[in-house]
Amino acid sequence: MAELKLHIDRFKCAACGACVTVCMRDALILWGTWLDIRHENCNACSSCVNICPLGALTLEEQKGV
Ligand code: SF4
Ligand code: SF4
Question: Which residues pair with 8 in a beta bridge?
Fold first, then answer.
């Protein structure tokens, strides 16, 4: 079964922090201007994808594994 995995487009992300604020599972951390994902905490709720003003976050299907 395919799982959704959060992906960051580093060219689009401006490190505004909006996604970090909206994530209820502490899955997003901003280290200075570097956004990090704790995939083990993410439940693919898509709140961060919807709030990002620059469309830098996407949920993509992971095949296999
Ligand atoms: S909301 Fe978008 S632009 Fe802002 S830090 Fe998150 S991914 Fe980057
Ligand atoms: S998809 Fe949901 S749980 Fe995953 S990082 Fe975004 S807001 Fe957090």
Answer: 57
Q: Predicted confidence band at 63 (pLDDT cuts at 50, 70, 90)? A: confident
CA distances from 10 to 2, 14, 34, 46 (A): 24, 8, 9, 18
Ligand 1 atom nearest to 57, measured from its CA: 7
Over residues 19-44, mean pLDDT: 98
Q: Which residue among 5, 7, 23, 36 has the greatest number of ligand 2 atoms within 8 angstroms of its CB, and so is best to mutate?
A: 23
Task: Report which of 47, 48, 44 is spatially closest to residue 56, judged by C-alpha positions.
Answer: 48
